[in-house]
Amino acid sequence: MSITAKFTFFFVLLSSLAISSFTDNLPTTYDVLSGYNFPIGILPKGATGYDLDKATGRFRAYLNGSCSFSLEGSYQLKYKSTVSGYISENRLTDLSGVSVKILFFWLDIVEVVRKGDELEFSVGITSASFAIDNFYECPQCGCGFNCNNVERATKLRSGSGPFVSSF
To answer: Which of 9, 54, 74, 130 has the most CB atoms around it within 10 Å of its CB?
Structure first.
């Protein structure tokens, strides 16, 4: 092997090790949520990455494709492959990429606010609050918390009642 080939091989090996160790130390999407005082379970398992502008709070979270599931048979949720909005301490605003089925309609969740031990989800025309301990673990695409026919130990507990239609 020539000196040039050996140098190229060594450089490529060193570069890949440096990039790998650098990306291994980056916070995950779930770490970023926690850093803004949100539980990780507001996103399903499998977030593949994110973009965050710390100056403005603009973020994008990337999932491995679109995702839908039911929670305790009461709510159906859909996530697009990209969820975006603005994040700040205890507040997600101008959200896009997440919707909930209310009665026969799919409505976009546009805001999530943490108020103490509750999360308030707004669809614009109405909102509902849920105990934060419902979101300590991430649901799984396709089956939510009822994967492999194993029910989650706690039921989805509402703080101020379910979404109520304002129609």
So the answer is: 130
